[in-house]
Amino acid sequence: MPDLPTTQSRADRIVTVPNLLSVLRLAGVPLFLYLLLGPRADGWAILVLAVGGFTDWLDGKLARLLGQYSRLGALLDPAVDRLYILAALVALGVRDVVPWWAVVALVCRDLVLGATLPVLRRRGYRTYRVTYLGKGATFLLLYAFPLLLLGQGTGWFADLARPFGYGFAVWGTALYLYSGALYLAQFVLAMRRPALRPGAAGGTRDGD
Length: 208
Prior knowledge:
This protein has helices at about 15-35, 40-65, 70-95, 100-120, 130-150, 155-190. It has one domain (about 10-190): Four Helix Bundle (Hemerythrin (Met), subunit A). The chain starts with 16 loop residues before the first helix and ends in a 16-residue tail after the last helix. Helix 1 (about 15-35) packs antiparallel against helix 2, helix 3 runs parallel beside helix 5 (about 130-150) and helix 4 (about 100-120) packs parallel to helix 6. With about 210 residues, the chain is an all-alpha fold. It has 6 helices and no strands.
C-alpha cells in the first residue's frame, strides 16, 4: 500500500549532506544529456553517470550514518534516478541504439504513475511504498546504458559489452514495467479504502 503521512519532525529538514549530494546528481543530468547528444562524448557521459551512481550510494550511506533522513531526500533521490533513465532513453532513442517503442513504454510507465500521485495525496497518502523489484529494475537499466554506449564502439571490448548491455536492457525494461504494474495495484487497493482523515498518521517510512 502507499505510505501514510507522518508527523512533522527532523524529516522536514532540507539542508542536509545527502540532499546536497542529490542536488549534485541532479545537476549532472543536463550535462549527461548534452554529452550524449552534442559532442557524443560517450566516455565523458559514462563518467558523469558513474559519478552519479557513486553519489547515489554515498548519500544513502551518509543518511544512515548521520541520521539525516528527510522527506525531500526520499522524493529527490528516486526522481533523479528517473531523470537519468529518461535522459539516457531519449539520447539512445535519438541515436537509434534502442527502439522507440521501448522508450515510449518506459516513459509512459512513469507518466501514468506520476498522474496517480495527486489522487493519492488527496486521499491522505503520501507516495508509493517502494519495492525491491522496482529498485532492481532501476539498477539494471542504469547498468545497461553505459554498456550499450560502450557497445557502439569497435573492437573486442565493444563486442563484449554489446550483448551484456542488451541483456541488462531487456531484463531491466521487463522488470521496470512489471514493477509499474505492482505500483498500480497499490493504487487500486488504496482507492478501495476509505479516504484518510487529514493529519492521520501511520508507522511507515518515506518511500521512493
